[in-house]
Amino acid sequence: MWAAAAVFALLAGWSAASGRKEGLAFLLPAVLFLPPVAGLFSRRKGMRARGAAVVLAAAAFVLSVPSGAWPAAPAAAPSAREDSSAPASGVSSSGKLRVHFLDVGEGDSEFVELPDGKTMLIDAGNPENGPDIAAYIRKLGHDRIDYLVATHPHSDHIGGMAEAIRSFAVGAVYMPRTSEADTPTTSVYRNLLTAIRDKGLKVSTAKAGVSLFDGGGESAAFVAPNGTDYGDLNQYSAVLLLAYGKNRFLFTGDAGTVSEKEITADVRADVLKVGHHGSGTSTGAAFLKKVSPKYAVIEVGKDNQYGHPAASTLERLRKAGAAVYRTDQLGTVTFTSDGNTVSADKKPAS
Ligand SMILES: [Zn+2]
Hints:
single chain, Metallo-beta-lactamase, Chain A, binds zinc ion, 12 helices, alpha/beta, seven-stranded mixed sheet, 15 strands, eight-stranded mixed sheet
């Protein structure tokens, strides 16, 4: 038994070092090690000896792998140490999907608790929102972000992301690829890249057609960006469709009508995170018709300098029959789905 476990550990280590299937690689030895390690505490001498042998073999294996063999930034897999912490969060799966639209003033941040217990953070507000976002996630009982999505590199979306990365174990990171001319040189963006590199994380490109996961009734996939050169960072926004059973959520970042018109995927959704804080150049009538949301959430700051949300957008949402939830009026709003129905923890201000 212990010999088999050691062989699996070697195989797992090899596959991790070569950067594939990190999750599986660490799950296998974890599962295989459990019985023999439990044997350590057994009353039977044979079992204890076997347990000790397995632990020694594992220790020898870990020590034998040169540190350089572990994936390193930036072109590598998520940090081995972070990934090995099996079900890191203390939260058990609830069978419910919860989407928290965090009040970060004039900015975006959505924290998602998936039915299987995994978590996703889409955007992280402004730099000053970082500590509050981290505290909110911790209060929910999580210490891991399985999927981190930066919709686009504007500071009201990636501001608190470096802090989130430094505060939690992080799985996959997704960002859109911007043209060289459009790539920002801001300190907020550089700070994010540094945090990603320091943690040994790899960035996957967010673009239409890329799936984050699909199985067990849960799926998430990007439906935009469809282009590669816009001359406007907002249009690069990663637009994510999250589905659980019959319920669907669409997260649009700051995508405007330019990007909306390029989207060919089925975007029908129960809940729409309204694009670009309710700006008049987002949420076009044709796009809104395709989404036909029951609920529309606008993440927007009180008395912001941009005049968000635009009266024209509010009028389109009203005509479309969507109930509008605004974070400047309600603070953080949480939607819950059991796969059949969606409900919010607050009522929209009339
Ligand atoms: Zn924005």
